[in-house]
Fold each of these.
Amino acid sequence: WSVKNGFPAAVSFFEQRLYFAGTTSEPQTIWGSTVLDYENFTPGTLDDDAVSFTIADNQVNATRWLAASKFLAIGTLGGNFILSTDTTSGPVTPANINIKKETTYGSDLILPKKVGSAILYVQRNNLTIRELGYNLEEDAQIANDVTLLSEHITESGIQDMDYQESPDGILWCVRKDGKVATMTRLAVQDVTAGSRQDTQGSFL
């Protein structure tokens, strides 16, 4: 990483490793540190050695964010990928990395939020919020549009967002025009409700 090659645009901890991704010269390459040695990226063959890999896809799509769950979710401009092992159990090692593309809904640069077992993220159009989560019927990760019934509340685009877990599950989204849109999301009760919060002045 350098001024010439660029610096990572995405970072996350996952299974005791520090992961970086999304440089200018290598937009689809992901680097993971040695286990519990977060500044050591020296490659090797031992299970706890650092890992490095490049996503193989038909298009070159820059990585926008990384999010840790039961797997490492990778949001790119052209879709979402899942990093896991090629076995049913055990941690990621240099010998068993598995990358699989799950959706084709690209991502914005805004950091996603973990809500329960799902991940809420802003789509590349900067207007749609999608929920990346496992679907039993399809036996795959899907990314449902949770703003489908209230698309107007994000009309100027989303600047930033954060999730309030208690007392109600609410995703707060600061819009580019200084207003705030909120999304009440309670997946267990199948509740999704969007609204706009008005006040004197603007939000930052």
Amino acid sequence: ELRTPLNAVIGFSELINENSNMEDILSFNDIINKSGNNLLALIEDLFDISLIETGDIRIENEPFSIQSMLDEVQFIIKNEQLILGKEEIALKMYVDFGNINPILNSDQNRIKQVLLNLLKNALKFTQWGSVEFGCLESIQNQIPMLKFYVTDSGIGIPPDKQELIFEVFRQVDESKTRIYGGTGLGLTICKRLINLLGGEIWVESEIGKGASFFFTIPVDVDDA
């Protein structure tokens, strides 16, 4: 996975010379740019999993507006839709705080990272229909929690693979889904981060009927 984008960057950059026409240069530049971004994303995943495994990752809890964070996530994912050419997929957001204070004391950047990872996966594996995300109040063992979710109408995940996808370097089908790319690190990172934040993450899905990912974040009792 690291070699593929790196080979593209080196290969297409070597094709650009004084004899190249502008149309070819622009086309090669587009491939180099996309490959460079893919390579950066892979390296960032490797850094994250390394920091998590060694216990060196930082969790910084500060109060923030959940709605503002979700609005920012929506803006980023709408741009991702444009990049992927999937503007026809309906992107929906739903929020119901219930009795929970909409100001959450947690690590905003890590929650955002998990949401963006799940949403990018949802777009990647969805060819038509919709992708919806948001959060709502949840009570687990009499403890108030915020339950975030990302649901799509994509290819789905078979029941016997739903635990496997959270393991390091594992994908649902390590042959067929190669067309979608990725290292198999994204969901592992999500699981580790949510656990560090005191929550849980899980998936509910059927083949051909999409997937729904959920994760919980504890809420301070004084703030609920």
Amino acid sequence: MFKSNVKVPIFCLLLLVLIAVLFVSCRKDKPRILIFSKTEGYRHTDAINAGYEVIFKNAIEKGFIVDSTEDAGKFNDNNLRRYRAVVFLDVSGALFNDEQRTSFKRFIQAGGGFLVTHASVDAERDWPWYNRLIGAYFYSHPAVQ
């Protein structure tokens, strides 16, 4: 007489489902943002430090990952693909070469998030696309704020 052991296939099926769930849950990456704080002009050191403090505190509380850099070389297609948003934390001056500008523009056009703080409106003055993105440049910076 043929004896069927139905328990083994069910066990195997459950094991496969468990492995799939573990794989999917491991693949869910936490949101990642990039903070960029390169300065070529005046450096708002206190504001940059305070900005980092607030962003890192929120990252811990809200469960996202923060990377930071002052290296414009990080603005390439492969690296930017890792991020949901980029923060320009009081950047100033000429930041990018043409290739970096193109990669950053593609990132934004693909739906990447973007936040600028204060002095960032004094960056990339010779790049009309950036000016349209942020909406304005400083006319002059007040001595007392």
Amino acid sequence: MLNIGNIIGKFVKNSSQRELGKLNSIIEKINSLEAKFSALADEDFPKKTLELKSKVKNGTDLEALIPEAFALTREAARRTLGERHYDVQLMGGIILHQGKIAEMKTGEGKTLVSTLPVYLNSLSGKGVHVVTVNDYLAKRDSEWMGQIYKFLGLSVGCITNEIIDNEIRKKNYNCDVTYGTNNEFGFDYLRDNMKYNINEMVQRDHFFCIVDEVDSILIDEARTPLIISGPSEKSSDLYIKI
């Protein structure tokens, strides 16, 4: 018995299929650079990063740098972690860069996929945040994936609950890539907006972020508001006098 749905599906693609189809040409460009970048010496990778940053500074759009940035990150991952991004992971990286959600199952390499758009957007020099669900993952991923970023000449920071010193927090926020939890980033934002002096603020501009387990953070966790509380001030009779 013929399945009409399967027959129609061969000729009429859904929106997701059409979107993925558009990415094939970019994937081909990334793959065409693999041989070129595999011939680079280790010390050439930070130099390539400076070269790409210079292009962005001179007005080159990040979209135009996707093939070079992704191919460079893939080769850096292969040399530091022994892991090479598959084509489907490259697609996931492009989708994340576009501000869309990439749904992947456990074990499909979500953490590795995130390095692609993180590196690309770090070329702006404005800093990239990677939001995770707990301190353990933030610290683990900053050290694990941090090997790739450092190999490429980037600085990596991590914000956890145990960091009390504001200067250390500020230093971590000023890195090219900063890992942390939604709570830590949220509370630092609230505290910054209560400061009397801009120099006391720990965060800088918010340019680009990757949210891990986005359904948990933006839906489940978002139901619990972030509240800063403290002891009330001493009762004053000023109101009565006025």
